[in-house]
Amino acid sequence: MARNKHPEQTFEKIVVTAARLFVEKGYEQTSVQDILDATGLSKGGLYHHFKSKEQILDAVMQRRIQYVNKRFQELIRNTPGKNAKEKLKKILGQLAADAETHALDQALASQLDPHFVVNGIQTCVDQDAPIVAGLIREGNHDGSLHVQQPELCAEVFLMLLNYWANPVLFHRNSEETKVRLRYLQSVMIQLGLDLIDDSLIADLIQAYVQ
Amino acid sequence: MARNKHPEQTFEKIVVTAARLFVEKGYEQTSVQDILDATGLSKGGLYHHFKSKEQILDAVMQRRIQYVNKRFQELIRNTPGKNAKEKLKKILGQLAADAETHALDQALASQLDPHFVVNGIQTCVDQDAPIVAGLIREGNHDGSLHVQQPELCAEVFLMLLNYWANPVLFHRNSEETKVRLRYLQSVMIQLGLDLIDDSLIADLIQAYVQ
């Protein structure tokens, strides 16, 4: 068999195809053979890059982290706002409406694939929260926010917003979800992070219904 | 082969053995064959009760839910206290020190088996929080607590205490965990649920170190 002259393209192909299969079938229901069939690669071609399905999962998750980080950074650079609070509110609104960000997460969450839920929780606390904390510090500085311990506040906010208030994880209807988003709104106001408004709640409910 | 005259004992044996194997090896690394070997059952003997490993997992998780509920109810009945707040604080202290409650959870969490983490999150919000909310309502009634929306407050409290502040899930050291427990203490004080004190924080750090 001819040697692959573009190993990075093969790597890419495996990761993209595996992500699609994990979304369609669930991680545990996807076999290495399924990935071979869908990519048309030989066993040797795949094992050159990945020794196991777990390693492919790691690469898929790594890509999700990179994607969200890139998207976050883009939004931070390109979202106008008279201060950090307004900027953060707009960014949250855009993320809620951003179908692409949700595609992988939602599809995986709706299958409740526990690997993705746990990885998502770790990513939101370890990777996303520090980015939000940076903007909170900016808001404390420009006077639009008054948050003590921005890092910890961001962790709590994202953990509750993305997971506790997630209807898929707890099989909740829109009304039950709305009640929780309103409670989260009141909690965050008490912590000085007044970002959740009626329009964000409406956008989130809308995103979850889809 | 003689028919089993005590099907409920066989069921029990499978669930207990499977729980032990899941703890020792992890859920995904445990095969049905491992469970057959460890119980000495035939394939037919096991499949009479469970059609798949997933069904065994469900039974193990069901048992964990029943155990924690029973333990909670016992503590609520048998823990003395001059009011609901004092009672809740003592119950939390006892749960933190209760090795048996932690055995399954900790062992599974330390392997970070995502099935157990996700099921644990769902159980804590859907099953444990309503029990805590009952005691919070009692505290609102006897004047020892002043909590709005006891159900939602209990959900947020348990989700943050058991998962966000969990060092195993985020690979944190004792100091990083202590900082989060102190922040949670200040958040819960603002929500009117002043239950976390220095001795609970010390007990939790101690329990996690083990």
TrEMBL record, chains A, B:
<feature type="DNA-binding region" description="H-T-H motif">
    <location>
        <begin position="31"/>
        <end position="50"/>
    </location>
</feature>
<dbReference type="GO" id="GO:0003677">
    <property type="term" value="F:DNA binding"/>
</dbReference>
<keyword id="KW-0804">Transcription</keyword>
<keyword id="KW-0805">Transcription regulation</keyword>
<dbReference type="InterPro" id="IPR001647">
    <property type="entry name" value="HTH_TetR"/>
</dbReference>
<keyword id="KW-0238">DNA-binding</keyword>
<protein>
    <submittedName>
        <fullName>TetR/AcrR family transcriptional regulator</fullName>
    </submittedName>
</protein>
<feature type="domain" description="HTH tetR-type">
    <location>
        <begin position="8"/>
        <end position="68"/>
    </location>
</feature>
<dbReference type="Pfam" id="PF00440">
    <property type="entry name" value="TetR_N"/>
</dbReference>
<dbReference type="InterPro" id="IPR023772">
    <property type="entry name" value="DNA-bd_HTH_TetR-type_CS"/>
</dbReference>
<dbReference type="InterPro" id="IPR009057">
    <property type="entry name" value="Homeodomain-like_sf"/>
</dbReference>
